[in-house]
Amino acid sequence: MLSLLYQEGPSTEGIFRRSGSAKTCKELKEKLDSGAEVDLACESIFVTASLFKDFLRNIPGSILSSQLCDKWVSVMDQGNNEEKIKSIQRLIEQLPRANVVLLRYIFGVLHGIEMRSEENQMNAFNLAICIAPSLLWPPSSSTPDMESEFTKKISSLVQFLTENCCRIFGEEINSLFGEI
Fold first, then answer.
1. What is the three-class DSSP state of 57?
2. Residue-by-residue DSSP string for 95-125
């Protein structure tokens, strides 16, 4: 999925904003969950994007770890960009290795899409609005007002991560997918 999103996302207007066919997504998810072979290259890139966001939403405890939720939410309240980057890097070090690897690929894709935002209309802000709710969600005891504030803060964090991904994850993030 990430490879397809990396290849087609930058040239697709509204990637992650537009939803794929709900029926197709449901059918493909069932096939994927059963272990069947699925050729996503034959499907709409919007279906792949929708499936990927669904995959992220179903990671137990979220990819950014619900246990670190308060720390993630407070990152953007810290001093200058250097301090924010250092705080983010410390939080990333606390995540399981699999989460870190997946995050690097996710932000490699988002960075590639953002670099062509004039073509696809998906700058870091727009990407964050679409992706942030799939990366970390508020505690279940939250009120609607708390959820709204939480979503704004996480979106701001994801925008910052996207804009600064090379400094946070390293310059090699640009070559994670090799010469596809």
1. helix
2. S-HHHHHHHHHHHHHHHHHHHTHHHHS--HH
What the chain holds in terms of domains, given with CATH numbers, is 1-174 (1.10.555.10)
- Nearest CA to 107 out of 157, 180, 9, 173 is that of 173
Is the pLDDT confidence value at 178 over 80?
A: no
Note the pLDDT tens digit of each residue in 25-39. 999 999 999 999 999
Provide the sign of the torsion angle of the four alpha carbons 157, 160, 162, 167, taken in this order: negative
Phi, psi of 12 (to 5 degrees): -110, 115
Q: What is the CA radius of gyration of the chain?
A: 16
134 phi and psi angles, rounded to 5 deg: -90, -15
Contact 128, 155 (CB under 8 A): yes
Q: How far, in Å, CA of 111 to CA of 86, rounded?
A: 19
Residue 41 has pLDDT above 90, yes or no: yes
CB of 166 within 8 A of CB of 89? no
Q: How far is CA 156 from CA 7, 108, 114, 150, 172, in A?
A: 26, 18, 15, 10, 24
Mean pLDDT of the chain: 93
Spatial CA neighbour of 12 closest among 138, 154, 115, 113: 113
